[in-house]
Amino acid sequence: xxxxxxxxxxxxxxxxxxxxxxxxxxxxxxxxxxxxxxxxxxxxxxxxxxxxxxxxxxxxxxxxxxxxxxxxxxxxxxxxxxxxxxxxxxxxxxxxxxxxxxxxxxxxxxxxxxxxxxxxxxxxxxxxxxxxxxxxxxxxxxxxxxxxxxxxxxxxxxxxxxxxxxxxxxxxxxxxxxxxxxxxxxxxxxxxxxxxxxxxxxxxxxx
Length: 207
Fold this sequence. Notes:
By secondary structure, the protein is mainly alpha-helical. It has four helices and no strands. The longest helix is centred in the last third of the chain and has 61 residues. It is rod-shaped and about 150 Å long.
């Protein structure tokens, strides 16, 4: 809000001020051209007025830059808090259940692949956040620079932990699917052997 108000103030000041400065410059030039007795003094006044106007414009520009930097810094910390909350929410969405058979494990696996694809947007947001951190750290020093770096590292750690949890779940799902497939093969083999034994037992015994 402060930034918007000052931007409006700067726009009005620049417009009105330039118009007034131009009007004074034109009046002085007309007097000098007409051969006024104080032409030399007026020329000095004109230079002084134009220098003062340039200084005022520079002051306005500096103030705008400070407000923009302050806005960027506040937005950075706000975005960091939002990202941490989003990462924590995604972490909570990771289920612990691995499935009781091959079918449910494969369904979980498909869901997990979709979950990982969705995380690509979050990774891009974190990357952009880290680039902003690098840019801001060049503009600030001391305590503020340390706070910027601390926030960036906290977000990076949270994302890394989420991605590690995703990798761990994927590996557990693969292991669980392999286990169920093995048990299925073992059951089939046992069933086949039991069937073979029954066939042998029902055959006529040699005398």
